[in-house]
Every structure is written in C-alpha cells, then in structure tokens.
Amino acid sequence: MQLTLRGVSHRFTDAAWLFRNLTFRFEAGTSYALTGPSGSGKSTLLALAAGWITPAEGNVESRGIDRTSWVFQNSHGMPRRTALDHVVLPMIAGGLTRAESESIAHGTLARFRLGGLASRPFRALSGGEAQRLMFARAVAANPQLILVDEPTAQLDAVTSKLVNSVIQELSDDGRILLVASHDADTVASCDVRLDLAAYAAED
C-alpha cells in the first residue's frame, strides 16, 4: 500500500505556485507531518492525496488504497446524534449490521478514551472529546488512508496532548496517515516530516 507523488506542482488558475516538483512516497504504517508556513499548500496537498483535485503538473499514484477518511480542523457532527451513532453509521454504510457495528464501535470509542460517552449527544461533547470522536469515526470506516487537517488548532494544550497521542497510536495500524499542522507537538507525534517550504517556487 503506497501513495506516491511524482514531480507534483500545483497552483490555482493564475495564482503563484504553492509548491514545485514534489516527489515523495508515503508508506503504510507511517504517519507524516506536512509542515510549512501558511499558504505553502498543506491543505491542498491533502486534497491532492484524496483525489479531490488534480495537480497542475505531475502525478499522484496510489496502490492498495480504496478508502480514505478525513479529520478536519473543526469537528463536524450531528448535534443530536450520540457519540456511538457517529462511529456506527460509517460501518452500517459499509455493509455491517447495526449489532455488528455497535459491537465494534464500543471498542473503538474506548480506544479513543470515549468509552463512557457512548450515549452522549455530539452537542454535549467538549472540543477535545468531539475531535477524538472524529478520529474514531474516521477509523470506523476502515480506511487505508487518513487525512488530518490542523487537528489541534482550536484546542487547549491539555486536549491537544490527548489528540497527539491518538495520532501516535494510529501510525501503528498499518495505515497511511497524513497530518497537516503548524503545531510543534503534533509534528513531533508523527514519524516523518515533509516540509513544503523546501518545495516552494523560486522567485
């Protein structure tokens, strides 16, 4: 399972190039921190990895990846649905029964330190709890690729530490994990750093 960028450069219409001639291979079982100043193209690179957009130059090649999950900067959930529902529904959509899904979901919630909150509605969760639930929901879809965009940007230091510990654990699952972040601790929680500043277009 691999995701490979070959000579990838990107810009939007006539805007300046975000990055040029980026060649890199992302391997299974590894977490990657995407770093660089604002406007360097971190979120854009996630979108390229997901296949949402096509690079202006170069190619994005994937092998063995047919399911991708996202965790966004702001936690988006269904206010009245419980934490358990958020993890169960992706599995039901994938073909499991409700009973099968709930059995797996309880274990997944416990893994992300949410076991005691299964029946709590999303609107009653704290910011850190909601963000960890987004990771649990992402994992529930059993993806080969997880894309994470600034996961601790809206969190305090204590909650950020919990989220970063989740990132460290996910790299042991045999998935490819790409994390765009400005946060030094989040970057340190990943196995490999890819600094997009090194691929900035020369003036």
TrEMBL record:
SMART domains: AAA
Start and end residues of each ABC transporter domain: 3-200
Keywords: ATP-binding, Nucleotide-binding, Transport
Record InterPro entries: AAA+_ATPase, ABC_transporter-like_ATP-bd, ABC_transporter-like_CS, ABC_transporter_ATP-bind, P-loop_NTPase
Gene3D superfamilies, A to Z: P-loop containing nucleotide triphosphate hydrolases (3.40.50.300)
Listed Pfam families: ABC_tran (PF00005)
Any one Gene Ontology molecular-function term assigned to this protein's record: ATP binding
Highest taxon in the source lineage: Bacteria
The protein's name: ATP-binding cassette domain-containing protein
Species assigned in the record: Microbacterium bovistercoris
